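sorry to bug you again but im stuck and you know this stuff better than me. below you get a single protein, a line of residues and a line of whole numbers that encode the local backbone shape. mainly i need to know what kind of three dimensional shape the backbone takes. anything you notice is useful, everything is just below:

***
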Amino acid sequence: MPRKRNLEDLWWSVFPIGTEWESIDMIKEFNWNFENLEKTLEEGGELYGKTVYLFGSTEPQLSDVNGELKIILVPVVVAVDCPFPPSDKIGINLVQTGEEEIVPMKKMKMAWVPYVPLEDWFGRIERLKTKIFTLCCTQRRSALKHMRTERANKFNYCTPYYMPLNPPEDEDGTVVSVIYPLEPPIICDFDLECDSYEDLADKIVKAEGLPEDEREKIEKFLKEKVKQGKIKLKQAEEARKKALEDMDPKQREAFENIKFYKFYPVKTPDTPDVNVKSRYINKYYLKAHYLT
């Protein structure tokens, strides 16, 4: 039996945040291999000797499996190169309503947990050359059925939260995203500088083939959501400024040099091809600096 690699179980120890509980078992369908991640963290790798925070997610892809096209769930690992935790918060984005919550990790039973490689299992964590922390979740899957549905569903919409020191160059502070509650929901952007409620409501009615009496409801809904959106944009900017003012100089320097690495599984005879690779991480982290 081949000897286990030192970091072989690392990717599996990272909680695939945002993946529906019922779908997590789909990850186990294949013997995924993350030797690219392991080599980056081991001696000679770019992240060797650093402090790294890892979180996981999954991406559905259409792939050829034994000659049959099927949807598979591809695990992805993001490594954050930073001596400080990138955040102690989680974003919860409910697709159906468009509502967003930013909550402490502990509220969703999540935390950054030290990872100990196999060869160092009986050693002391502080002696390790590379300090690895993984995002873990202690919520027991079996306990979900005893939870209120609203609370249980929130786990499916969790996203690692991160607030950059400066807003991204392509971030538009004049655009409010709106989700109109139909089945399926209608998603649109309202530009505070260019759009009018009447024109956007008219476009939605025509594009979706909705009855004319829906126009007034859409206008009223847009006005309310845009009002809320303006408040959120202002609050986000104020929170960013306060965070900067309160930040320790060493921490600020670390965040100015923070780097994101995104890893997909490497190809092996036991796994299907990963046809699509994207630098995009999520709405908070945006894009990875490095993709492999």
